Amino acid sequence: MSEKVRVRFAPSPTGPLHMGGVRTALYNYLFAKSKGGDFILRIEDTDEKRFVPGAQQYIIDSLKWCGIEPNEGASYGGEKGPYVQSERKDIYKQYADQLIESGNAYYAFDTADDLDNMRKQAQEMGLANWQYNGVTRSSMKNSISLSKEEVEKRIANGDPYTIRFKMPRNVDVKFEDEIRGWVTVNTNNLDDKVLYKETGMPTYHMANIIDDHLMEISHVIRGEEWLPSAPLHVLLYQAMGWEAPKFAHLPLILRPDGNGKLSKRDGDRLGFPVFPLNWTTAEGELYSGYKEAGYFNEAFVNMLAFLGWNPGTNDEIFSLQELVDSFSLERVGKSGARFDPDKTKWFNQVYLRSKSNEELADLIQPLVEGDFDSTYLAGVCELMKERASFPVDILNDGDYFFNEISDYDQKTIRKKWKEDSPTIMNDLINEFKALDSFTAADIERVFSEYLTKNEYGFGKVGPSFRLLVTGKGMGPSMFDICALLGKDKVLDRMVEGIEKVEALKNAAAE
Ligand code: GLU
Fold first, then answer.
1. Architecture of domain 404-509
2. Which fold is adopted by the domain 6-74+208-252?
3. Fewer CB within 10 A of the end CB, N or C, for the chain?
4. Predicted TM-score (pTM) above 0.85
5. Is the domain covering 268-355 a CATH 3.30.70.100 domain?
6. Are 256 and 339 in contact (CB under 8 A)?
7. Is 226 touching ligand 1 by the criterion CB < 6 Å?
8. Could you tell me the pLDDT band of residue 264, with boundaries at 50, 70 and 90?
9. Please, are residues 46 and 204 in contact by the beta-carbon 8 Å criterion?
10. Whose CA is nearest to atom 5 of ligand 1?
11. What are the pLDDT digits (tens) for 2-15?
12. Burial class (CB in 10 A: 0-12, 13-18, 19+), 309
């Protein structure tokens, strides 16, 4: 094992990368960067049946969007490649042979039907979980139960075979997990896993440990679902005579209600994405992604970092570099981390507010219909960003900056639009007309003077004024809104609004 920290993210291209997978990649990245090490992307595509076209590219695109790019690996190159396991097919067989020679593995000729029959028989006898193991292997067709001649004959004959690991009986496998501490598993609970398939492809277990060894991986950081495989991996390293990397198994990500693991189906069902980017299945089913839902990559990454890790302080907002600077495996928890969609929105809101008006204007520009210059858009962003979680909220909540008013808030009409409102609004129109300069300060001054002069409270004038200009009952400062819209537009809206609101009020009264 090398002195240098070298970690890998080793997804299987069996579908889009779930946010749990992105978190695994992120923790690997943070660990590597915090130790001056390498972060490697290895594609584990030995399961041909579950291969999904496009998944590998999706993984690469997702890591890119998150800004956690490997410095070595599939589509990045490097000295220890190839980094896609199907391109390494020729490497694995010699190691499987080596395990057979050393007595740690054996040929098995059982067909799928043979195995099914055994399982059925066991079930009929009331044995729930039949396993191919030290107890049952002698009654199966393999190079332990069959004579040497028979085995040679079958191989020479081209009979299909798998290679299985000869799991020792009653041995306590012990290893230290960087997050969980010492883990001990008795081999009587483990079966003779297939290492090499009939198709000439290694299984995940075999390819995984060979590649981790050949790629000089120092730490295996992966999801908790791989913890049950770790004892086999430890035994495989021993059988190969190789030093095992260090292991760290990350806690599960739980559903918002805390009941069970967050699955790919939960997201759209419960109204939040569980994938980094949109993904459309071959059947045309769309799974939504954080990117397309309007999340900032920094917010997504910041949120993910906190699903299972914390810095030990109350600080929550961390850039990627700050995460690198603070990250350690010691501060990763053992128990499942509950995903909180509201908190995720909150992170986005914080990042949105931290953007400049110009940056936000660039983001909303493509979504806006009509001809609005960037200064105007930046002005809208300045007024609307305090209340927005997503860039699109600025457009939806501030639609009156882009469209004429088609709807007037019913509640404001009911509660605030009185008999004398048209007169008051006409007075205001005349006050505004007289203004040469229409800045927020000018509008506010005239408005306040008008209230004082007539001894009106704000509640008598303000809400109706807002209603006419924006159609809404709430929003940012009216003086800022009016200054941005400009004098002509404000006066037009007020004049037209009086008539329309009166009509609505009368219609409601009938
Ligand atoms: N290929 C495995 C996966 O899809 C990787 C497990 C590991 O990191 O060892 O998650």
1. Orthogonal Bundle (1.10)
2. Rossmann fold (3.40.50)
3. C
4. yes
5. no
6. yes
7. yes
8. confident
9. yes
10. 10
11. 589 999 999 999 99
12. buried
